[in-house]
Amino acid sequence: MDAKDMTDLTFRLQTLAVFRSLLDDSVISALARALHDGAKLASDEEDDEDASADAVAFAGSYASFVSALFESEAQGLSSYICDAVVDNENVYLRRIGAGEPVGKAMEEAAERELAVLQRLCDLTPEDFLALLPGVADSLPAFDTEKADLIGLYHARLRDIGKFGYGMYARYHVFRVGDKGEIVPVHHPDPQRLCDLVEYGREKKIILDNTKALLAGLPAANILLTGDAGTGKSSTIKAVANELAGEGLRILEVRKEQLRDIPAILDVLTRNPCKFIIFIDDLSFSHDDDNFAALKAILEGSVSAKSDNVVIYATSNRRHLVRETFSEREGDEVHLNDTLQEIVSLSDRFGIHVSFSKPDKKTYLEIVHKLAREKGIEMEEQELDLAAERFATRRGGRSARGARQFVDSLLSNKAE
Fold first, then answer.
1. What is the C-alpha separation between 109 and 121, in angstroms, rounded?
2. Residue 306 has what pLDDT?
């Protein structure tokens, strides 16, 4: 790459409009600086008294770029650029994802900019090191390989109706950050439906409803209630993992973030993916402000209605609002109306699935299956007695308790 090419690429990077936010990326901004300094160095005349200073500036900016690339832990430059471009959430993608028209000017700008970004992908260490041949061995190289960025981007556009765009195409589990922003979960719980023993009827109800959502059919909000450790949360996570390849995404929202849901729905409604908003361990006190927020969402208010989103919530309580006997005997004039509003919140979910503690037979069946999967060899009678003792110490039988018991056997075996 000569001075003219470097100058041209540096200029074209500054003309990005659709992908302009990429210029704020730590690696790409450092790369742009290295290209700028490299172009300046390459254009120096041999007798230019500033050539030495330009060489130092280039060496520093190039090393800073390589350092940023190393810190990113990417496989190489082309891999990093491809990921950054595909993950970039811009107005072009959002319009296509929402099925809205894209003007000719924007379409042409996107194609032109993809060609510029393809040139970044094609850069090699030699393009830079050749500028300082005398000290090239002192400068760090970087890994890269040929990549068809334009082809990859167009393939993502073809699948946008199923897998979405940006981070939604790369990840399938998300959470709400402290500022109300949607954040991807890089290492989600790998729970699978085949790992969950028993509760076949309950799993089928949730799975069928979720498949209806994916098919564009009416799908209900679901409330999962029952004893602790019976697999309510695990079932939702397993369904999300099972159907991720079909475009299902899951967003976990904490109870204190319920007020953020209307704003979140404004974002998700324009997204072609289907979403489960997951609220775990839900319960309220009678004067909890979040109670009204959830009620409005479940009623489908104008600001909280979206055809591509369902809400799945778990609770250890059938009635989501904690009550005391003194509250039932309060002095409110229309006390019965208030009590009805409190106990009816759970009825606002279209489907209610109850998970009950397993009986002894079912509990031991879960233990046997998990023990076989983990390669634990024990006499059945001995295994059953130990499992029952474990359940007694833990206050009762549950699917979670069965898994904890088997894990304890593995720990003891390791010792």
1. 18
2. 76
Q: Is pLDDT larger for residue 267 or for residue 276?
A: 276
The full length of the chain comes to: 415
Distance CA 305, CA 167 (A): 23
The alpha carbon of 326 is separated from its chain's Cα centroid by a whole number of angstroms, namely: 43
Condensed to tens digits (0 to 9), the pLDDT of residues 235-244 reads 999 999 999 9
Q: Which amino acid is at 244?
A: A
Pairwise CA distance, residues 26 & 124, whole Å: 19
Q: Are 170 and 86 in contact (CB under 8 A)?
A: yes
The phi, psi pair for 351, rounded to 5°, reads -130, 135
What is the largest distance, in Å, between two alpha-carbon atoms of the chain? 95
User: What DSSP character marks residue 271?
Assistant: S
> How far separated are the first and last CA of the chain, in Å rounded?
61
The model carries a pTM of 0.74
Q: Based on the number of CB atoms within 10 Å of its own CB, is 352 exposed (0-12), middle (13-18) or buried (19 or more)?
A: middle
pLDDT in tens, 312-340: 999 875 555 544 434 444 544 444 544 45
Q: How far apart are CA 253 and CA 343, in angstroms?
A: 22
Contact criterion met (CB below 8 Å) for 331 and 242: no
Give the pairing type, strands 309-315 and 274-279: parallel
Four-point Cα dihedral 103, 108, 111, 114, nearest 10: -100
Quick: pLDDT tens for 39-73.
Answer: 988 886 655 667 788 899 999 999 999 999 999 98
**Residue 321: DSSP 8-state:** B
The residue with tokens 């009950």 is: 356
Half-sphere exposure of 22 (CA within 13 A, CB side): 28
Distance of alpha carbon 248 from alpha carbon 242, whole angstroms: 9
Predicted confidence at residue 307, as pLDDT, reads: 85
DSSP readout, 104-164? HHHHHHHHHHHHHHHHHHT--HHHHHTTSGGGGGGS---------HHHHHHHHHHTHHHH-
Rounded distance between C-alpha atoms, residue 41 and residue 52, angstroms: 9
Residues 6+ positions from 82 with CB-CB distance below 8 Å: 121, 147, 149, 152
Find where tokens 């890089």 sit. Answer: 186
Return the SS3 of 191: coil
Structure token pair of residue 80: 């990093």
Q: With beta carbons less than 8 A apart as the criterion, state whether 171 and 185 touch.
A: yes
